[in-house]
Amino acid sequence: MLILNEKKIRKGKPIGLPYQGSKKKISKKIVEIIKQNFGTDKPIYDILGGGGAITAECILNGLEVHYNDLDKGITDAFERVISQDHEWIKTLIVSRDEFFEIKAKENKTTDDFLKLLINSFGNNKKDYLYSKEISDLKYKLAKEIIKNHDVFSGYKQTETYKKVISESEWDWFNKKQGKVKVLQQIQQLEQIQQLEQLNKVKATNKSYHDFSKVSGAILYLDPPYEETNQKSYINSFNSQEFYDWAFEMAKKNIVIISSYSISDKRFGAVYSFDKARSTLESGISSKGKNEKLFMVKY
Q: What's the pLDDT tens digit per position in 230-250?
């Protein structure tokens, strides 16, 4: 089993795009586990890097890391956020009508990708963040808060927010805790922008097979959960083929896989995040199963 002294974990918020399957909530622990058990002298390959949470945490810890994801849309989005400013972020908030207009576009830009990501339910880029009943109200409130106060975080303390929820016709809004989710998601992008260290991130968009010659490194792998049988617009994912590859790579590297379960008996759990629940690609909790780290059994 791997060890973790939580007192050594970096202070501050975890960083990364709000992305389906993201390990952002536990990224600080994962990187600290790597440091405490395997040292800091080996390069880390974040081969299925998704929204960049592990890559960002590695950089903030001064580690050498290679950020890769087959989906160029997500890596371009990460680099786009780093290169832009506070004013640009505001343009990512879109109405329900705008969202579906963008979704219908045949050729989408990186900004389109981010708009669908930030304004969608569960970050699935398919369904608008709010139901049709409340979408206009939530959208207008978010825009008013930005216009009057120019903030994404702490929006519940603004006069605009307090005024809206104090009005009687917004009783239903109070009962739903009045969250303006899109502002919370935008805040996550702003956190990325504020860290100059992340400017060194240079992503690649290769298949995991393209890293087969890597040796003497730490491979952190975050594949799709087996039971979701994830099928993206890029390709379908063959879990068993991936496990065969990871097993071979473990002969010349340290290989760590994130999941809640692995059917291949050659791998065993070496750490469990008891408070971190797994979520499927639909954003639905996978029956209370905990996230774990797996390695090859020797």
A: 444 345 789 999 999 999 999
Average pLDDT (86-108) is: 96
Q: Write the CATH number of the domain with boundaries 6-71+205-296.
A: 3.40.50.150
Q: Where are the domains of the chain?
A: 6-71+205-296, 80-194
- Is a pLDDT exceeding 80 seen at residue 178? no
Q: Is the pLDDT of residue 80 over 90?
A: yes
Say if CB 135 and CB 96 are below 8 A apart.
yes
φ, ψ of residue 64 to 5 degrees: the values are -80, 125
Predicted local distance difference test score (pLDDT) of residue 170: 56
